Amino acid sequence: MRVNIDVSMEYALEQDDAALLAIAAAHTGGQSVHESVLDVDDATLCRIDGEGGVGERVWAFIEGEQMKLRYRARVDVTRPDVALQNRAAAPVHQLPPDVFTFLRPSRFCPSDLLATFVEKQFGQLAGGAKIAAMAEWIAASLSYVPGSSNATTTAIDTLVSRAGVCRDYAHVMCSLARAANIPARYISGYGPDVTPPDFHALAEVWLDDAWHLVDPTGMSTASGLVIIAAGRDAGDTPFMETGKPANPISQSVDVSYEREG
To answer: How far apart are alpha carbons 60 and 201 in whole angstroms?
Structure first.
């Protein structure tokens, strides 16, 4: 399925500040990038690998105090939608080293504080069935409320308030999975069905020796999601980082399925 992406961003920056961007579709399994063009006015660009080798980040060194960019991409998503219920979780001692790290607690995913809750709520289940039940529980227990969280909100904060946005849903999903000894990583991406259109966040879990996307918000599917980056939590995958405060002037994210014919 082909997905078209068109992003425009304009931010006011402080003098001599640079922006680190993570907005490009990743060259990774399950998707083929046919076009990926980033234009930043009056800027020198330096590209580096993304966290864990997924995707790329781009340093934009701006001349002046205003960053204006446009990013366009056409991506074929080839990964299928997979039912997780019958997928098995590997014993911890059999996990690859680069996967094992996603069992660890992180700043926004303090999974070590949730082991008792997870055992009580989901202990009768295993593997993919446990993950599916967690996603259903999150969808039923949380309310999607824009503005209900901020850049410091953790999964524990979200579980207390029972409200959040996609970032918070993904943090809770990752935290619950890790507390059950199932590796989980935070994914940023583009989804044509995300409402309102924006950069999206979801989780990816390690089952049957492969990563599988799971979105507790229900706004995206594996077959329609374009991955940008992966990490332990939102701290590893922000779409933009600056050393000094950056003030938004305008931003639009347009993601759509390409119509045949």
So the answer is: 23
Q: 77 near 60, Cβ under 8 Å?
A: no
d(CA 177, CA 110): 11
- What does CATH list as the number for 2-78+239-257? 2.60.40.2250
Give the model confidence (pLDDT) of 46-65 as tens digits: 999 999 999 999 999 999 99
Q: What kind of fold does domain 92-236 have according to CATH?
A: C8orf32 fold (3.10.620)
- Name the residue ranges covered by the structural domains of the chain: 2-78+239-257, 92-236
Q: What is the pTM of this model?
A: 0.96
Angle at Cα 152 formed by Cα 146 and Cα 155, nearest 5°?
75
